[in-house]
Amino acid sequence: MKLFYKQGSCSLASHIILHEVGATFGIEEVDTETGRTKSGLDYTKINANGYVPALELDSGENLTEGAAILQYIADQHPESGLAPATGSVERTRLHEYLSYVGAELHKAFSPLFSSVATEEETKRSRLNVAKKFDYINDLFGDGRTYLLGDTFTVADAYLFVVSNWANFVEIDLNKWPSLAAFVQRVAERPASKTAMRAEGLIS
Which of 60, 80, 100 is the last residue of a domain? Predict the structure, then answer.
């Protein structure tokens, strides 16, 4: 397998989960501005939408969309416990959190990484991110370790990556102490450290 990624982007979640399951895989960085991979491939031939992640399977097929890739990896390694059983209420909760992180939190951050966003758009984005963080911080207020309780899942990897973007856009995550503690917990996982080192995010 090969993971096509962009440093520190949402593809980091898939990178972490591949290490969590002990998969054998390669990685190739993508320049989403030029549409080329590190080796010079036309990335739009791999993912027509041009964004990361994409996972090239050993069969030659390519999977795209982070939430789908995360669940695929987990389902190939059911012993990992990274996703509850299909059809269970817990699996539906996993979908719920993956959808929230992708459609709400991830989307809320987008203007903060845009070079053409206006000052007003940036201000609204910060307020929107704060609102999403309020909700997530309240979730962890009941003492849970991870989104589904005591078990780390693929949704936690995605939430960790997106929440950690706060550090790159001058949002003080410590304003949400329960969420900040969660981010620190996931950052300390061996798989997280390995993936972040491979992407040059930590030494």
Answer: 80
- Phi, psi at 5, each rounded to 5°: -140, 165
What is residue 40's three-state secondary structure? Answer: coil
Helix, strand, coil percentages, rounded to 5, for the chain? 55, 10, 35
Buried b (16+ CB within 10 A) or exposed e, 120-145: eeeeebbebbeebbeebbeebeeeee
Q: Which of 128, 190, 137, 187 is nearest to 160 (CA)?
A: 187
Distance between CA atoms of 156 and 167, rounded to whole angstroms? 18
Task: Please give the backbone phi and psi of residue 26, each rounded to the nearest 5 degrees, phi first.
Answer: -110, 170
Give CA–CA dist 134/117, Å, rounded.
24
pLDDT grade for 189, boundaries at 50, 70 and 90: very high
Give yes or no: residues 65 and 96 share one domain: no
- The predicted-structure confidence for 8-43, as pLDDT tens digits, reads as follows 999 999 999 999 999 999 999 999 999 999 999 999
Backbone angles phi, psi at 31, to 5 degrees: -95, 100
Angular region, 56: left φ>0, alpha ψ -120 to 50, beta rest: beta
User: Are 116 and 177 in a shared domain?
Assistant: yes
Which residue's structure tokens are 């012993």? 79
Listed in order, strand segments (DSSP E) in 35-128 are: 36-37, 54-56, 62-64
For residue 200, being part of any structural domain is answered with no
